[in-house]
Amino acid sequence: MDTEKAKIHPQMVDLKAQYSRLKKEVDAAMMQVVDSAQYINGPQVQTFADALKNYLSAEAVVPCANGTDALQLALMALDLQPGDEVITTAFSFVASAEVIALLGLKPVFADIHPDTYNIDARDIEQRITAQTKVILPVHLFGQTADMSAIMQLADKHGLYVIEDVAQSLGATCFYKGKDRQAGTIGHIGCTSFFPSKNLGCFGDGGACFTNDPALAQRMKIISAHGSAKPYYYERVGINSRLDTLQAAVLNAKLPYLNAFISERREVAAVYNDLLKDVVQVGLPAVREDAWHTYNQYTIRVRNGKREALMKGLEKMGIPSRIYYPLALHQQAAFGRYAPVGHGLKQAEKACQEVLSLPMHTEMSPEEAAYIARSVAGLLKEL
Ligand SMILES: *Cc1c(COP(=O)(O)O)cnc(C)c1O
């Protein structure tokens, strides 16, 4: 046990180890950009857009500067009016709601399924009004939301669907007889290449994807200051480009995305196996129609001892994180959008109970087992 422990230094993510594995390819790709001096809109950006398009089987990919911008570009492309309502989950990273508010639209928060932490389609339906224009589901922690139910609602009420795929690139969802890539079922998918995401670059990066060529063209124009032709501006846009250097890194890493996902799934399998009989722990639920990519491995600590568990783990050198400590409507910045009527009880309860364990592509089964046994052991004592 002590020798096992001596080798094990768990980290939430291990970007350094992943880089050393891919160093040769990534360094060569980056140096090519440095040598070419085509730092903005170099050919690697289009190469990456095409490669991601193929990976996703999507009609179009529009690269941009980060995942938050991707969401903003998607919303701007829909030509919404101030006050239009966008229904999104109350339990997510802030970006999903932030861009809605920034554009003068109204975020309407819906509750989540307690088992998957993803937006609950039944709760969406009761929040639809005459002002509702968009449903913005977030595929949280690596798994898609219930897209069949969401698309059915969208069709029935004539709404757009923007999928936030920042945590789930490479996840799939069975929809209309086929496994589809997360983000290609709704009208627009938006993702992030923040270093710790499923496909991470060496800084910020993002992309929108769509099967609608008109929407793709509009997002492309908006991302380039509203211009299709340099120095002629047809609408008010923003400046949101994917750096050529980041595109080069992504070109080198995209061929490994499926392997990265398998590595995450192997860690999750060890965790699942060793934690399944621990009564105080709720395991991440896996939907039958989905391929979970485990961007996070998030458990529910059911006995109210989450903070004590975190402290105990920390003493053993095991980091853990709370994603997320407050639901979006409980945040100071978004309090004014808290619903007056029916509450968001499951989102609030999740904030009290969730705990994310270390999860990355470089973790050995021994390391995962050590972490899971430590969680189980501590919970027995608490
Ligand atoms: C990371 C993330 C984003 C934003 O990505 P950035 O590239 O950091 O702007 C958006 N939504 C969710 C759910 C995320 O996890």
TrEMBL record:
Residues carrying N6-(pyridoxal phosphate)lysine: 197
SUPFAM superfamilies, per database record: PLP-dependent transferases
InterPro entries: DegT/StrS_aminotransferase (IPR000653), PyrdxlP-dep_Trfase (IPR015424), PyrdxlP-dep_Trfase_major (IPR015421), PyrdxlP-dep_Trfase_small (IPR015422)
Active-site residues (renumbered): 197 (proton acceptor)
GO MF assignments: pyridoxal phosphate binding; transaminase activity
Tagged with keyword Membrane: no
Pfam families the UniProt entry points to: DegT_DnrJ_EryC1
Alphabetical GO biological process terms: polysaccharide biosynthetic process
Keywords recorded for this protein, A-Z: Pyridoxal phosphate
Family: Belongs to the DegT/DnrJ/EryC1 family.
PANTHER family xref list: TRANSAMINASE, UDP-2-ACETAMIDO-2-DEOXY-3-OXO-D-GLUCURONATE AMINOTRANSFERASE
Protein name per Swiss-Prot or TrEMBL: Pleiotropic regulatory protein
Annotated organism of origin: Geofilum rubicundum JCM 15548
